[in-house]
Amino acid sequence: MRESVEGRPLDERNLIASAKNGETQAFEQLVRTHQGIALRVAYLVVRDLSEAEDVTQDAFVKVYRSLERFQLDAPFRPWLLRIVRNEALNRVRSAKRRERLALQVTRDPVSGDAASSPEAEVMWQEERGHLLGLIEDLPERYRSVLYCRYLLDLSEEETSVMLGLLVGTVKSRSSRALQRLRKSLAVEYKDPK
Amino acid sequence: MNTESRLETMLTSLGDSIEWPTPSPHLSTRVMARIESDQPTVAIPGFWRRPAIATVAVLLVTVVFVFSPAARQAAADWLGAAGIRIGITSDQTPTTGSDLDLGELIQLDEVGDAVDFQLRVPGGENPGTPNVVYLSNNGQVTMVWDGTPTLPAAGDTGISLLLTQDTKAGGQIAEKSIGPETGVQRLTVEGQPALWIEGATHTFTLLDQDGNPIEETTRLAANVLLWKTNGINHRLETTGNLKNSLAIVKTLEPLS
Predict the structure, then answer these.
(1) Number of domains composing chain B
(2) Which of A113, A123, B17, B130 could form a disulfide with B143 if both were Cys (CB 3.0 to 4.6 A apart)?
(3) What angle do CA B60, B62, B65 make, to 5 degrees?
(4) What ipTM goes with this model?
């Protein structure tokens, strides 16, 4: 579910305020609320579950220690996710690893256009797997925006904060990324005649 | 359904289709245990991981510049250009500047379309066309020139000249750690206030919007000219002197 910055629940703001005052139970609630998407962000970078968990832990600890500087009226989630992503990037760089697991598409469709037969399910899976591959082959500046907008379901504003981009840049990169994907798909499905 | 709407529909459903990991039941418990024990995270600044820099970073005086070229969240890549497929890619000869976390490589004739401001490039024969160009995740462009007999490389970087441009307003702050043998001169460049930092090799680290050092941006710097023109932050790092640098600035022309 997408989180609206303006519509952030009052109780979360209260939790943040309490955490800023050193109430660790409040912060634990924030951890529980956001650990899922934080882990996804870390996983997108490090592509290793165990390492992604470590990164997420470290990032939350950094978040807690940085809460003093966090402005209560600012969006919390993208700020948190930016710290997670930076932590993950640091980890990848220091490890200088070359091995990266590919993202995988689940076998069981969960969206409303779910396939209704085994054959259709295979096509469904292959189609999305192929699309995912095309995204991962995009230049990073486009890929990261698509990750945020579609894989993580972040708003343009949240993407802007998380990636440190202007909202206009998020829009333009998203548009260009879609153009590239459409172009790739058009080429691949072009009638050879 | 047309291609566009079908594509967006597929993308929208893609996030739900990924085999995402789920947090272990202990994740939050471990986080809280660390917080409550106030166990400091052991983190070796990137700074010290770089031998060339470590040798010069003693007894430093810190100067904070408020108008830095933004940048460098540089963190640029989610994964870098490295593949995301299972497997190991062979190590290749490193591209000049590839260890400086400047972003991802981009062609000079493509970079103009990738940013929302008018880039400029030196127009004279010296230094000529940049050898490589990088684009960081936050829209900072860095043009890099290799060392030459007349303009040698800085330290072991292989780089003689590095020109960065971006439009990040405020927020981003560059912190330079400058030794006693490094001079800072205020001057005017293109009619705007500028700084020229020259002397002993020094280091700098950029700070993110929260004032936290972005460790991966720490690097060895040669002489540096910093100025802002038409809302565009410029940083020219070079082994050359001020006269050479100002001569290069005079040749800057819009990248077509």
Answers:
(1) 1
(2) B130
(3) 145
(4) 0.78
